[in-house]
Each structure stands twice: as C-alpha cells, then as structure tokens.
Recover the amino acids of this structure.
C-alpha cells in the first residue's frame, strides 16, 4: 500500500488475548465491496420479483391440468350425447318415412273454428273408378292413402286388452270414406272412440270409424261407397292422430284386413 493512501483500519481483539490484530482495507476496496454487495442484493431482489409469479404459476399447473382433464371428459360426454341425438333423429326420420305422412296434428285444422277443406286429388276421366255403385258388404279401404297400421285386431283378452278393429296412423284432417254403401246408423261422441260414425250395410254388416276430428254425415243419411263421411283426428282415447276402423256382422267384430279387398296398396 502506498504511503499516505486512504484506508480503513480494522482492529480485532480476542477475549483474553494481549495482542490484537490490525487490518487495513483501502477505501477503494471497501467501496468496491459495498457496490458489489448492493448489486448482489439488487440482483437477489430482481430474482425474487421474477421468480414469485413463476412459482405461483407453477403451483397452479396441477389444478389447471385437472381442469383440462375434466373439460376433456365433459367434451367426450357431449360428443356421445350428440351421437345419440343424431341417432334418435335418424330413427325418427325413418319412422316418419315408414308412416308415409306427418302424424303431428295440423295447427290450422286443430285450431280452426271453420271447417278446413281437405286436399283433393284429381283423376283423369279415363281412370277406373275406385268405388263401385254396389250394395256389397264393406270392402273398400276408408282412406285415400294406405297409412301406417299401428295396431291390429286383438280378441284374446287373456293376453292383451281387446281391440275390435285396426288403428291406422294418418295426419289429422285426412279424408275418411265409407267402406261400403249403406245408411248412417249412429253418429256422436264416445269416451273411447271420440267422434265416430257407424254405418249399416247389407247382410247385417256394420262399419265403425272412430277418433274423427269432424263428422260430415248425420244419423239416417244414405251414403254411397267411397263417400266422404268425416275427417280423421285424435279425439277420445287416443295418443296420436289415427283412424280406428272396425267391421262388424251381427254384433261380431271381424278383422278389416280380411274384409277389405279394394283400395289397399
């Protein structure tokens, strides 16, 4: 050290010792140490300032991973449900195609206070008449369309509830025609059949048309085979629009599918 250079003197005296040790630290060394220490402290503070958010973010990673796993599981469930819904829609479309018509009630016909005219299909003059001018037992299909048979005749009450006729799914307001010529024996409303028309034919035959939305004939009227006697509906004990068609002879119910020979497609 140069003579006269400024320095800090540090004396160290040990307990019980007679001699002491003296250390001289140049001022520039002390200043350099102070600056270095301050820089170290500042660097440590910066590290803590930057490391804190990183540490907190790292602590949240397990929770985020659990959330991501839960979202992936929920997404898989949504995909499964979506596939199930698509399958149900396809099956519904297939059923509607099998039925051949939309059996949901027409809001216009359902809410109208005045009769709504049904659709009329024109046929050329050269076309063969579907209904003949005869007095045979009822053997014509009572609808312009085949419809969809939802329930057949059931006579074995031990196995199922008796069902003396057939149910044909058709849209509300479909034209219902007389299955044969005769007279209107009865018309009215019944808890089971809803609005109905009962026709009397030759040889003790009768035909019943139930769950109608409108009746277009009255008791005592004479009707020809194929004459429009009403419009189909969903009245009485019914869960969907359809026509209940029944044929009887001398009070005994007959299977209409064995009787009807004309008009079924």
């Amino acid at each position: 050290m140069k003579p006269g250079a400024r320095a800090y003197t540090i004396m160290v005296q040990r307990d019980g010792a007679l001699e002491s040790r003296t250390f001289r630290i140049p001022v520039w060394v002390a200043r350099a140490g102070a600056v270095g220490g301050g820089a170290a402290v500042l660097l440590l503070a910066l590290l803590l300032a930057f490391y804190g958010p990183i540490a907190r973010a790292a602590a949240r990673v397990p929770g985020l991973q659990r959330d991501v796993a839960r979202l992936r599981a929920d997404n898989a469930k949504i995909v499964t449900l979506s596939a199930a819904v698509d399958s149900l829609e396809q099956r519904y479309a297939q059923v509607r195609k099998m039925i051949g018509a939309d059996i949901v009630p027409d809001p216009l016909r359902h809410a109208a206070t005045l009769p709504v005219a049904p659709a009329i299909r024109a046929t050329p003059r050269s076309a063969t008449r579907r209904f003949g001018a005869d007095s045979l037992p009822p053997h014509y299909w009572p609808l312009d369309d085949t419809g969809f048979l939802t329930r057949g005749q059931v006579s074995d009450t031990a196995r199922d509830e008796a069902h003396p006729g057939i149910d044909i799914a058709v849209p509300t307001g479909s034209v219902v025609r007389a299955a044969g010529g005769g007279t209107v024996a009865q018309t009215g409303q019944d808890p089971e059949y809803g609005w109905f028309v009962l026709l009397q034919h030759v040889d003790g035959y009768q035909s019943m048309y139930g769950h109608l939305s409108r009746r277009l004939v009255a008791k005592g009227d004479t009707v020809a085979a194929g004459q429009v006697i009403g419009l189909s509906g969903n009245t009485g004990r019914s869960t969907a629009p359809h026509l209940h068609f029944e044929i009887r002879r001398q009070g005994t119910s007959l299977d209409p599918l064995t009787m009807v020979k004309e008009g079924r497609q």
Summary: DSSP finds three helices and twelve strands in the chain.
